[in-house]
Design goal:
Elements: E1 10-14, H1 19-31, E2 35-39, H2 47-52, E3 60-63, E4 66-68, H3 71-81, H4 92-118, H5 123-137, H6 154-164, H7 166-169, H8 180-191, H9 193-198, H10 201-204
Parallel strand pairs: 1-2
Antiparallel strand pairs: 1-3, 3-4
Helix pairs in contact: 1-3, 1-6, 4-5, 4-6
């Protein structure tokens, strides 16, 4: 066992290509947290991470003696640790619904992104399913500026990295009346200062 260096500030070991790492970086930027972001190759993870994280995985967040290694847990921790601006609703019912939407993004969309990126199975079918599923929810953005909300939330933090990667994933959104609300939502997300701040070098190149 090596010696784990104690860090006095928050440290985020991040995969610059991963949408899971990206969602946490968006929260960090929204909150204006002072954090050392260490861009890490998932094929060459530092020994320090393996000492701290039993799964030796990315992302890993270190806040003094606390080590977190699940992206959604990190997001909720940061929202509670740095309450302004709030990224979850105040009321229990609305908070539960937000968590459920995050869960649905994981089950319905994140798994398709992971499949396309890994190249496993029928990738073309996964692309088509992801595109059609996103188009199906497009109308909700005519009612509210963010995902089922007037305010930017953790749900948007999960969805924004997926939408930013569509071009890289080979998923084209048609410029149709049906897609228009979704495309407008994407522009709102991508123009946020926090979103631009959150981008790794590799992510910036995805939509050049």
């Amino acid at each position: 066992m090596g010696v784990v260096t104690k860090r006095s500030s928050m440290t985020f070991f991040s995969d610059g290509l991963s949408h899971y790492s990206h969602r946490v970086r968006i929260v960090l930027a929204e909150k204006g947290v002072t954090v050392e972001v260490i861009d890490t190759d998932p094929k060459d993870i530092p020994e320090e991470v393996s000492e701290l994280n039993p799964y030796n995985s990315l992302p890993t967040l270190v806040d003094r003696d606390l080590v977190l290694y699940e992206a959604n847990v990190m997001m909720e921790y940061l929202d509670e640790r740095f309450p302004h601006p709030p990224l979850l609703p105040v009321y229990p019912v609305a908070r539960a619904l937000s968590r459920l939407w995050v869960h649905r993004i994981e089950k319905d969309w994140s798994v398709l992104v992971d499949q396309i990126e890994s190249g496993e199975g029928d990738v073309d079918a996964a692309r088509e399913k992801l595109r059609d599923s996103l188009l199906a929810v497009a109308p909700i953005f005519t009612e509210k500026p963010y995902f089922m909300s007037e305010e930017f939330s953790l749900v948007d933090c999960c969805l924004a990295p997926i939408l930013w990667r569509l071009k890289r994933l080979g998923v084209e959104m048609p410029e149709t009346k049906q897609a228009a609300p979704l495309l407008a939502y994407m522009n709102r997300l991508f123009s946020r200062e926090s979103f631009q701040t959150s981008l790794s070098e590799a992510e910036r190149e995805m939509n050049d």
